[in-house]
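Open question from group meeting: does this chain pack into something compact, or does most of it stay loose? Before anyone orders reagents, we agreed to write out a predicted structure and look at it together. Recording both the input and the output here so the notebook holds the full record.
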Amino acid sequence: MSDRKLAVVLASGGMDSCVVTAIASKNYDLAMLHLNYGQRTERRELKAFNDIADYFKAKYKLVLNTDFFREIGGSSLTDEKIEVSLANLNPKEIPSSYVPFRNANILSMAVAWAEVLGAEKIFIGAVEEDSSGYPDCRKIFYEKFNELIKVGTKPTTKLKVETPLISLKKYEIIKLGVELNAPFHLTWSCYKDEEVACGVCDSCALRLRGFQMAGIDDPIIYRVKPKYI
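Structure tokens returned:
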């Protein structure tokens, strides 16, 4: 029996959540949580999640399924009538890939599970400065959410959301992941495709630019690999 405390890790199967999992695994047993919400690459993201959870020998795994994001719509990730836009690494507007209030909903599920398990931390790979401009990836969002946890859970619950990557740039996350032996080869970031990463959506571009700035080869295969620096 492990005497380590438990942390819930929100894991999409992407690069950032993989590094966060590596960070959490240093001090906690892992309860890994993934959400299938009707996203275009749902099947491939689920495979990446399971591969990463198995790599880190997670104590618990939970996959939740919901259609409400797809039914609500408003995002190119969940509505096939909305085209996934090409990469824009200097956006002036929030991109079409933003899923309205997604992280608040996912965090609420994580809090519920963490309270049942008696976990003391929730880890999420949110990044503010080098993200696509999503409002629910900002530091202030997580500060306010932690206040909500305090007033919305049992008095005996001591639970906090941790965002260790929030102020880092992608290339810094990649270098940290390499130091931690994070299995980048198991991850999936592409918003459009499930077989071979497209290389031209926002998520692929941010990832590729990060690897290029870090001077490290990205281990996954891309349809095209533009130079983003």
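Observations to bring back to the group:
The longest strand covers residues 29-36.
The CA atoms of residues 91 and 132 lie 7 Å apart.
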